[in-house]
Design brief:
By secondary structure, this protein is an alpha+beta fold. It has helices spanning about 25-30, 65-70, and strands at about 5, 15, 50-55, 85, 95-100.
Length: about 110
C-alpha cells in the first residue's frame, strides 16, 4: 500500500496508508488531515487541496493538466515549482507521496 506523508507548516508530519487509485486529497479528507479541504470533491473547481509535492517525486505523477495549472493560480498560497492539487495526485502501488501543506490553508 502506498503511504502519504503530510507535512504541516509547523513541521509536524502525519503518515497515512493510502489506497491505490485514490487521490492524495481523498486520503487526507478521509483521515482528517488539517489543511486539505477538497471543497469541490476533486473536480478541479477549487484550490483548497493545494500542496507542495516533494521535488524528487514530481516524476512519479503525470504533469499537471492545463485545467490544474490554471486552478493553481487561484490557490490561497503563491504557487511554487512543486505546487500541485492533491486531488490530481493518484496513488499507485509502491509509490509513496510526500507533500507539504501551505499554511494559508489552515
Amino acid at each position: 500500500m502506498p503511504k502519504v506523508f503530510y507535512v504541516q507548516p509547523d513541521g509536524v508530519e502525519k503518515v497515512v496508508e493510502g489506497v491505490v487509485g485514490d487521490s492524495v486529497m481523498q486520503t487526507a479528507v478521509r483521515n482528517g488531515v488539517a489543511g486539505i479541504v477538497g471543497q469541490c470533491g476533486g473536480v478541479l473547481s477549487c484550490a483548497t487541496c493545494h500542496v507542495f509535492l516533494a521535488p524528487d517525486e514530481m516524476d512519479n505523477f503525470p504533469a499537471p493538466s492545463e485545467d490544474e495549472d490554471e486552478m493553481l493560480d487561484c490557490a490561497a498560497t503563491d504557487r511554487e515549482d512543486t505546487s500541485r492539487l492533491s486531488c490530481q495526485l493518484t496513488l499507485c502501488d509502491g509509490v509513496d507521496a510526500h507533500v507539504r501543506i501551505p499554511d494559508e490553508q489552515l
